[in-house]
Amino acid sequence: MKHLTKLPNIGTNIFSIMSALANKHDAINLSQGFPNFKSDPLLKDLVSKAMQNGYNQYAPMPGNLELNKAISRKFERLYGTSYHPETEITITAGATQAIFTIISAFIRQDDEVILFKPAYDCYEPAIELHGGKTIAIQLAAPNYSIDWNAVREKVHSKTKMIIINTPQNPSGTVFTEADMLALQDITKNTNIIVLSDEVYEHIIFDGNKHQSACLYPDLKARSFITASFGKTFHNTGWKMGYCCAAKELMEEFRKVHQFNVFSVNHPMQKGLADYLQEPNHYLELSSFYQEKRDLFLRLIKDSRFQFQAAKGTYFQVLDFSEITQEYDVDFAKRLTIENKVAGIPLSVFNENNKDDKVLRFCFAKTDETLKKAADILNNI
């Protein structure tokens, strides 16, 4: 049989490549974004209790109502605004499924989608699969700030969606209030949908406030917000997330969601609903991860790597230009094979594989792991 691929430029993603290389060479894996410490035993107990209490059949398609209500209360507490738990919140099989479903529901042949690079790698393939066209705006290292006049020049009648990610993976930067106001101004009085990927909303540092799209009334009316329980509660393998949007947008989302997923793990939903009754479970995350970021950066301050401290996420970008002028993918592989520590090269997230001589390292690791990795990096 012969088939014409719908994704001719897509191969194995860099996360799988680097993790496999780390496993093969017994290297410390700071590449893929997952914690190597355990999630809260209380949360696991609550999920087990939900199983024992019979939450083992299909959940309602939009999600367990208790969980949707808990999410609605969280938005009220954090942002002074909310989403209706029955009509404006849907539980998803991770944020990636939410993102794919949003794009599936709205992007048609030749629609244009603006996104900012370096960009997480799930956006562009979904756009391509649905016949859309990616309009990439490349951001410059090390600040990765946005020229909103350049964005304005890209917006026209074919622009259907703008994708933002704050705190941003892989750069570790965050959008400011000025950024969000500029985005709101550009999209005002248009039919443009904003897909706001906010999976690291609870991991933001140095007293900064997360600038959620829901804080800005016109943005909220045109935006989907996607979020991840896996990122928030150290259990990425559960693949639990959610998205929020105005009722008329969510109705279109659910038309697709009911056929590509329908509903997601019911006992986990019930366990998370109970766990969210205590706000400190997510309110304390920023300080928890800032301690890890600060530890990692203190440990490597005398290394030959250069850096600006990440403003959010659990990723730190390190500039290796004083060490070598190798292509970043080659250096990342050599670092894994020869030095036994794995990171992610950022060129794979850039337009035309632009190489800024930087690698991304995940610091969502035990202190012991970070110290071992720092010892290696200091000796390079």
Automatic annotation (TrEMBL):
Keyword Transferase among UniProt keywords: yes
Origin superkingdom: Bacteria
Regions annotated as coiled coil: none
MF-aspect GO terms: kynurenine-oxoglutarate transaminase activity; pyridoxal phosphate binding
Gene source species: Oceanihabitans sediminis
Family: Belongs to the class-I pyridoxal-phosphate-dependent aminotransferase family.
Pfam families the UniProt entry points to: Aminotran_1_2 (PF00155)
Descriptive protein name: Aminotransferase class I/II-fold pyridoxal phosphate-dependent enzyme
UniProt keyword annotations, A-Z: Aminotransferase, Pyridoxal phosphate, Transferase
Domain Aminotransferase class I/classII large, chain residue ranges per copy: 26-376
Cofactor: pyridoxal 5'-phosphate
Cellular-component GO terms for this entry: cytoplasm
